[in-house]
């Protein structure tokens, strides 16, 4: 599933091709995504100019401007297997290419999603009023994400620290891959109760989250099966994974065999020697 670094990589990849461009056409080949593509999507987008792209958690935000009209925002979620790529007018669509947004210079923002768990929608007015965005916690690379926040929100919680860290109300965008890697880097057993971890250890965990995500963004995300960037390039952070997907292999620090467990219905790999 594309996580925060993959969505951020996509944002950076497609922005130079569409920002400042006027949308001239929208083609919808398949409306049956996780939520149906709005019937008025084309009417809402055509004639509007693309503003500076943003991201909130795993949502891609594309502002749409039109002089004398209300500002709207295109909200895109990649789901489990979705990707947004840049094509050109005349490039034949492939199977599972569901939506095209075409801009004035002939560039095509093309949405590909074999499992159709993603969605596209447009929002009008204040983004914070949207229920999908309103309850989200801070961005992990922003100043609002602190060890003190993790510590205070964890008090009294019996929930294991890994699903606690993956809770979007606590911090957004720390999915299974990056939670696994951050906990390893911080030396914390993913099974430990969140409420029984000290402030000092949360300082290390917050630093590890920032370090892992920043490195993943620099490397263009993690390609495990479906993800490619907005320009069709794979992400290379998979080559730097310490524990995720390495169950049964040797720990890079101590050499012990990495163990596979299930937490919150998600597979988790850890080192029993290095993570306590």
Notes on the protein architecture:
The protein has 276 residues and is α+β, with helices and mostly antiparallel strands. It folds into two domains: 4-122, MutM-like, N-terminal (N-terminal domain of MutM-like DNA repair proteins), CATH 3.20.190.10; 147-271, Helicase, Ruva Protein, domain 3, CATH 1.10.8.50. The protein is 25% helix and 21% strand. It contains seven helices and eleven strands. The chain has helices at 4-18, 41-45, 131-134, 147-154, 161-165, 176-186, 199-218, and strands at residues 23-28, 49-50, 54-56, 59-65, 72-77, 83-88, 97-103, 107-112, 119-124, 259-263, 266-270. The strands form three sheets. Strands 2, 3, 4, 5 and 9 form a five-stranded antiparallel sheet that branches. It has a four-stranded antiparallel sheet with strand order 1-7-8-6. A hairpin with a 6-residue loop joins strand 4 and strand 5 (72-77). The radius of gyration is 20 Å and the shape is elongated. The two termini are 28 Å apart. InterPro entries: DNA_glyclase_Znf_dom_DNA_BS, FPG_cat, FPG_Glyclase, FPG_N, H2TH_FPG, Ribosomal_uS13-like_H2TH, Znf_DNA_glyclase/AP_lyase, Znf_FPG/IleRS. This is Formamidopyrimidine-DNA glycosylase. The active site is at residues 2-3, 58, 266. Its cofactor is Zn(2+).
């Amino acid at each position: 599933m594309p996580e925060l670094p993959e969505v951020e990589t996509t944002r950076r990849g497609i922005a130079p091709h569409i920002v400042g461009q006027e949308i001239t056409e929208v083609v919808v080949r398949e409306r049956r995504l996780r939520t149906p593509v709005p019937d008025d999507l084309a009417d809402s987008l055509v004639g509007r100019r693309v503003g500076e792209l943003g991201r909130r958690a795993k949502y891609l935000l594309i502002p749409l401007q039109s002089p004398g009209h209300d500002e709207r925002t295109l909200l895109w979620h990649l789901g489990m297997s979705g990707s947004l790529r840049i094509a050109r007018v005349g490039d034949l669509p492939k199977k599972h290419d569901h939506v095209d947004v075409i801009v004035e210079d002939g560039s095509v923002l093309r949405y590909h999603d074999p499992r159709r768990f993603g969605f596209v929608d447009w929002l009008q007015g204040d983004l914070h009023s949207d229920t999908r965005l309103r309850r989200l916690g801070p961005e992990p690379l922003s100043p609002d994400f602190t060890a003190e926040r993790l510590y205070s929100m964890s008090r009294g919680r019996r929930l294991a620290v890994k699903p606690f860290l993956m809770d979007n109300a606590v911090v957004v965008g720390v999915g299974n891959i990056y939670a696994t890697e951050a906990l390893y880097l911080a030396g914390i057993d993913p099974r430990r109760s969140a409420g029984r971890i000290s402030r000092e250890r949360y300082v290390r965990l917050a630093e590890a989250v920032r370090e892992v995500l920043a490195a993943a963004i620099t490397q263009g995300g993690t390609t495990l099966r479906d993800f490619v960037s907005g320009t069709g390039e794979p992400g290379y952070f998979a080559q730097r994974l310490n524990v995720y997907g390495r169950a049964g292999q040797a720990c890079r620090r101590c050499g012990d065999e990495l163990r596979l467990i299930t937490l919150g219905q998600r597979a988790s790999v850890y080192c029993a020697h290095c993570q306590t």
